[in-house]
Automatic annotation (TrEMBL), chain A:
Protein name in the entry: FAD:protein FMN transferase
UniProt-recorded Gene Ontology molecular function terms: metal ion binding; transferase activity
UniProt xrefs under InterPro entries: ApbE, ApbE-like_sf
Keyword Methyltransferase: no
Gene3D superfamilies in the record: ApbE-like domains
Residue ranges with Low complexity bias: 246-261
TrEMBL record, chain B:
Entry keywords, A to Z: Signal
CC per GO annotation: membrane
This protein's record includes keyword Signal: yes
Protein name: FMN-binding domain-containing protein
Biased composition (Gly residues): 68-87
Transmembrane regions: none
Residue ranges, compositional bias (Low complexity): 46-67
Any one Gene Ontology molecular-function term assigned to this protein's record: FMN binding
Name of a matching Pfam family: FMN_bind
First and last residue of the signal peptide: 1-27
Originating organism: Actinomadura rubrobrunea
């Protein structure tokens, strides 16, 4: 079953590949969507009544927040330290943990699906992907990493049966990632992808590396030791990837996305 | 800028490039990045002899010379790439190249010359805030450089910069869904 839900300002694609009764699948999709909307309500910076907005305005004390919110804020602080301040939920001057929340909410949704018996699924939240299991027997999920300047082309294809893939880039929404140290928009890199076991962390790492600019390349290389592989494209068109990136073999010759045998 | 204290001897791929550029290996083979090498050198403790400075590494961001892992070759530990002894016109002493930016960040190389031969090569990474992390301290792991591809392939999902629900990528994802329905 495949469902697309518009939530958190983007399109979230939910694909469940398990052979379960249709009613079960529908229920799982509904639960997943309900969760994502709940997260949106609680964490959106666009809503006046979200916990985050009220916290930022000082109407709510951190200890009055829900356990989820406190966990998210603690995780953001941890990631701020691990990225040397380049992932900063306050980079814009206001509290905005959405760079973590989207990945986290999908990670939670994926865990819940697995616990409910849907062991084979893929959730794509606006370009950040969490996949588990297989799309069909004998084949792992194949996730394309978008080419920064050719929107219908892919720069890499990665594959896995338990894999998060997060990409941060300047090509969709312009130079919107701010280097918290300089206050200037991030330059030099136009696309950074991080793969690993946790989508929220992968997403934060990708955002941080983009903010670092070229300094992000050696920094990304160091992440491999903790299970996070990476690929990056610089503004000048140079491309880089870590040795352990789970790239899928490329079909040769490259044909348009048509039938493979 | 701060500077990491640990020098890396002979293991850094950038070192091989620098030496090749200096000592007569086919500079053209290094690509256009090397052409922009800055000849100006920083003073290194008064030991720098004019004209003997090590050239900077590929200076521009568009360098095509950035090596992948495993390209270090044998340039370290006093190897004599591309030439021999005094024929290089090397003066004895310690010479430090200008800090330059390669795709992996600023790097500064120091060579020691004795008897007209390079007897030591050290590279330090100048650090900006991003590199105060552990990751760059010792091994200096690197990403491998690849040719950027623009490929098409059978895929299940697309990862990309976060798009709005109206953007092309969303429609691509929808098209995938439709194609697989």
């Amino acid at each position: 079953m495949h469902h697309i839900e518009h939530v958190m300002g983007t399109a979230v694609s939910i694909e469940i590949a398990d052979l379960l009764p249709r009613a079960t699948l529908t229920g799982l999709v509904e639960q997943t969507c309900a969760w994502l909307h709940e997260v949106d309500r609680r964490f959106s910076t666009y809503r006046d009544d979200s916990e985050i907005t009220r916290l930022d305005r000082g109407e709510l004390a951190p200890e009055e927040c829900s356990a989820d919110t406190r966990a998210v804020l603690a995780a953001c602080e941890d990631l701020r330290r691990r990225t040397d301040g380049y992932f900063d939920a306050r980079a814009t001057g206001r509290l905005d943990p959405s760079g973590y929340v989207k990945g986290w909410s999908v990670e939670v949704a994926s865990r819940r699906l697995a616990r409910a018996g849907a062991l084979n699924h893929c959730i794509n939240a606006g370009g950040d992907v969490r996949s588990r299991g297989r799309p069909e027997p004998g084949r792992a999920w194949r996730i394309g990493i978008r080419h920064p300047w050719e929107p219908d082309k892919l720069a890499w294809v990665v594959t896995g049966t338990d894999l998060a893939v997060a990409t941060s880039g300047t090509y969709e929404r312009g130079h919107h990632v701010i280097d918290p140290h300089s206050g200037e928009p991030a330059r030099d890199l136009c696309s950074v992808t991080v793969t690993g076991p946790d989508l929220a962390i992968a997403d934060a790492y990708a955002t941080a590396a983009l903010a670092m600019g070229r300094d992000g390349l050696p920094w990304l290389a160091g992440l491999a030791a903790s299970g996070y592989e990476s690929a990056a494209v610089a503004d000048d068109g140079s491309a880089y990837r870590s040795d352990g990136l789970p790239v899928a073999p490329v079909d040769e010759p490259a044909e348009p996305a048509a039938a493979r045998p | 800028m701060r500077r990491t204290t640990a020098a890396v001897f002979g293991t850094l791929t950038g070192t091989a490039l620098l030496l090749a550029a200096k000592f007569g290996a086919d500079a053209a083979a290094l690509g256009k990045g090397a052409a922009g090498a800055d000849q100006a050198a920083a003073q290194a403790g008064g030991e720098l002899a004019p004209g003997a400075e090590a050239p900077a590494a590929p200076g521009s961001g568009r360098s095509s010379t950035a090596p992948g892992r495993g390209g270090a070759g044998g340039a370290g530990k006093g190897a004599r790439p591309g030439g021999g002894g005094a024929a290089n016109g090397l003066k004895d002493g310690l010479f430090r190249g200008k800090a330059s930016v390669n795709p992996y960040g600023p790097i500064q190389v120091t060579i020691r010359v004795a008897g007209g031969r390079i007897t030591g090569v050290a590279a330090t990474h100048a650090t900006s805030p991003a590199r105060t992390l552990q990751v760059n301290r010792r091994a200096i792991p690197l990403l491998r450089q690849e040719t950027l591809k623009a490929q098409s392939a059978q895929i299940d999902a697309v990862s990309g910069a976060t798009y709005t629900s109206r953007s092309f990528a969303a429609s691509l994802q929808s098209a995938l869904a439709a194609a697989r329905a």
